Structure formats: C-alpha cells, structure tokens
C-alpha cells in the first residue's frame, strides 16, 4: 500500500468519513427539537383512478421531503439552517438538530418557511433520484 507524499500526514481516507460528521457536536448541551418527516408525491387522475404511471404510495415514488420542526419560543431571525445533499443542520439559541436525511436531496433547491403561530419551521426539499421505471419525469 503506497501513500502519496501530499497526503502522507492524513490519518484517514475522505471516503471513510460519513457525510455530515463535520456538523456533529456531541458536547453541545442544546436539546434536540421535536420533528417529523413527511413525503409528498405529485399524482394526477391517471394515477388515482387508472394506475397508469405505476406510482404507489411508497416513499420510492415521492418527489419531496417535508420536515416539520417544532421550535417553541424561537424567532425567525434566530434560526440558522444549513442543508447538504444528505444532511440538515439546524441551530437556534436553545435547540440543535443534526438530521441525516433518508434520501439525497437537491440542496440548491428547497424552501423553508416559519409558521410563527404554530412555532414550526417547515422545510421542503426535492429528492434527488436516479431515473428508473417509476421516476422517469
């Protein structure tokens, strides 16, 4: 096994480090907020009544992931949100959430809105999938 001279001081290979581990801070005393993950799917009459496209209610046929995070006593200006391809990192003065997403997402396209009446942050992310016999559009 040969080590290149420019990486001789490296103690591990970058492929060995899981994605999102740079965000993990086990010594942070902030608590994790409650959250739920929902999946959204675009269906039309050809799906509902005729089943022509082959879509089913499983997450394999969903286009979007919606994450609802409860943030009581939080203002919109206090929220810091960072989204990578497989990781969502949320920080507020009282709460911290590092969430490894169930599917890779398009981190450049997405929306977040803060529902101040319910004190919920709703993040919608487009799932990034390879085209197959179900997801062909």
TrEMBL record:
PIH1D1/2/3 CS-like domain span: 32-127
Q: Which organism is it from?
A: Piprites chloris (Wing-barred manakin)
According to the lineage, what is the superkingdom?
Eukaryota
Please provide one cellular component term from the Gene Ontology annotations of this protein.
cytoplasm
Q: Give the Pfam families listed for this entry.
A: PIH1_CS
One annotated GO molecular function? dynein intermediate chain binding
User: What is the designated name of this protein?
Assistant: PIHD3 protein
Q: Which PANTHER family match?
A: DYNEIN AXONEMAL ASSEMBLY FACTOR 6 (PTHR21083:SF0), TWISTER (PTHR21083)
Query: Gene encoding this chain?
Result: Pih1d3
The family line of this record is: Belongs to the PIH1 family.
Which one GO biological process term can you cite for this protein? axonemal dynein complex assembly
